[in-house]
Amino acid sequence: MRLSKAFIPTLKETPADAEIPSHQLMIRAGLIRQLAAGIYSDLPFGWKIVRKTMQIVREEMDRIGGQELYMPVMNPIEVWEETGRATGFGDEMFRLKDRKGRSMCLAPTHEEIICDLARTFIRSYRDLPQIWYQFQTKMRDEPRPRSGVLRGRQFIMKDAYSLDVDQEGLDKSYNLHAEAYKRAFDRCGLDYFIVGASSGLMGGTGSQEFMVESPHGEDRVALCGSCDYAANLEVAASRPYPISDPDAPDDSSEPERVSTPDMRTIDEVSGFLKVTPERLIKTLVVMNENGKPAMALLAGDDDLEESKLTTALGGTFRPAHPEEIKELFGCEAGFLGPVNAPKMSVIADNRIKGGRDRITGANEDHYHISGVNIDQHFKPDKWADLRTIKEGEGCPVCKGKLRVSHAIEIGHIFKLGTKYSSAMGANILNPAGRETPIVMGSYGIGIARIIACAIELNHDEDGIIWTKTLTPYDVELIGLNLNKEEICKRADDLYEMLQSDGFNTLYDDRGLRPGFKFKDADLLGIPCHIVISSKSLESGGVEVKTRATGDRSIVKIDELLTVLRGYHE
RNA sequence: CGGGGCGUAGCGCAGUCCGGAAGCGCAUCUGCUUUGGGAGCAGAGGGUCGUCGGUUCAAAUCCGGCCGCCCCGACCA
């Protein structure tokens, strides 16, 4: 491609809207152009990279027996009502009506459509297993699109679905996808790790995320420094450690009402009563999807991890409003406790199990209760892991310590089980002749996130540095002094030679000054630059520069192809 | 949805507090010079100042509504 003819609009200045490096560079190097919040055009240079990325993923999906198909972006809403996700997705689902007034939606994912295909065409265990996948434009009306393409409202996802006879088959398909994903991300040159994750709205029996560590990631993860334990903070566990009970009270401690005027927070109460915060029991009241209240109890120095409580409750929840608390308990949120509380479901964090001589709110303004023994003075309905783990806590599987970091999710694999197939009647006859629901898995990769991560991991102050697998061109040929006819001729010949020898070449044949071209080349980030100029020719050939290191050397033109072939191995 | 910021030429911004001729840099077009790290000189084109309404002799500027974009939080495969 001759740069003089190419539509690659580079920008000298950093756009004001972009904050993170990948976003800034994707705009400056002419990869994308924003149309609205979370909605981007992929320009020719960027689209080439998207296509290369998709091709890597496609090859790895085909390698595990995946069959590519393509499903509709626009769906009738009825299909989504069958599984309850028409309401489950809520405002995140784009909705519209066709000219006849029929309700449609823009698909945020495709489990329902897969199920519809499966229930029509898959009748027998003999038809299984199947792996179907697509590259599809997903539409999600995110409440807050951000960080360029990292969270968009329209984005290309490689989504795959496995159909199996039983759990054992699902395990196999799931592992095949994990292997395919590892190979694909390795080929893209990403440094990633795999974490246990929450299944969220997807449901199912287990899931893992492929993560790239980045300060700009939206997810928080716990990583062990000594073993390979890694988990999303939504589900991360740590080695249990006891609450120190300095007073070691005997079993006879009795609840005692203590005055705590205007002491509402854990810090205020523990400071006022001169006890460590972990002796307090933190009481949180939430309302579930049906508007029913529930109580969550934690050690005073712990924080609630909301997705753990969601799992424990079996559904979403919101914090109770102050008025609701007042009505239920007759007091303010700062004085709540499980003793003599109104009737509601009580879920307690494992860390306070067996606690003695604890302090809780008295359900009366300006009073707390001390000397509370758990299971004696109140009994939780359910024990669960509810707390957010903290930096430096012990690893749950080895003797190491955990650190907490930010990460970008590039892939997510789910064992769905029969949630969707049951709801939609996607059944097969098993070998025993009995009708059973298909066991499903679903697997997603965000294509633009791969690219953004590649840039986050590989750039410098001058621009992008592409890996050899993702780069849109193999080499950039920079011609200088092209106003001199002889040099122009030799540059053109060199371009023809590179192209015909299989090197996909971007040729900067523009009549611009050298500095301008060098800056543009560094910004675009093609890994290898070849400069041909009167100066290089006087030195005996062309100058070959490695973008990543900045190393340059003069290479004779008749040796160039050999050098490049070595370079691209 | 809560909090904060912003909206003036293709891009980056000043002007807004304190109302009185719409500016600067880059980019673009023309000419000349220049050619190894985003050139110089001379000239030119390009604006419903987000939008609607109000105040005023007069509004980019003051007041109100709305829209859009970015960031933090909430939310989120």
CATH topology of the largest domain: BirA Bifunctional Protein, domain 2
- Report strand %: 25-35%
Any idea of the CATH class of the largest domain?
A: Alpha Beta
How would a textbook summarize the main sheet? 9 strands, mixed
- Cα-to-Cα separation, first versus last residue: 23 Å
Q: Can you tell me the CATH architecture of the largest domain? A: 2-Layer Sandwich
Number of domain units? 3
CATH homologous superfamily designation of the largest domain:
Bira Bifunctional Protein, Domain 2
Number of helices: 15
What is the averaged pLDDT score?
Answer: 92
Number of strands: 31
Helix content percent band? 25-40%
What is the multimeric organization of the chains shown?
single chain
> What is the C-alpha radius of gyration, as a whole number of Å?
30 Å
Strand and helix map with partners:
Elements: H1 21-28, E1 32-36, E2 39-42, H2 44-63, E3 67-68, E4 74-76, H3 77-82, H4 85-88, E5 95-97, E6 103-106, H5 111-121, E7 130-139, E8 154-164, H6 167-187, E9 193-196, E10 206-213, E11 219-224, E12 230-232, E13 256-259, H7 266-273, E14 281-288, E15 293-299, H8 306-313, E16 317-319, H9 322-329, E17 345-349, E18 358-364, E19 367-372, E20 382-384, E21 402-417, H10 419-424, E22 427-429, E23 435-437, E24 439-446, H11 447-457, E25 459-460, E26 463-464, E27 475-479, H12 485-500, E28 505-508, H13 514-524, E29 528-532, H14 534-538, E30 542-546, E31 552-555, H15 557-567
Parallel strand pairs: 3-7, 15-17, 17-20, 27-28, 27-29
Antiparallel strand pairs: 1-2, 4-6, 5-6, 7-8, 8-24, 9-10, 10-21, 11-12, 11-21, 13-19, 14-15, 14-16, 18-19, 21-24, 22-23, 25-26, 29-30, 30-31
Helix pairs in contact: 1-11, 2-6, 2-11
The chain binds one RNA strand of 77 nucleotides through strand 21, strand 24 and helix 13.
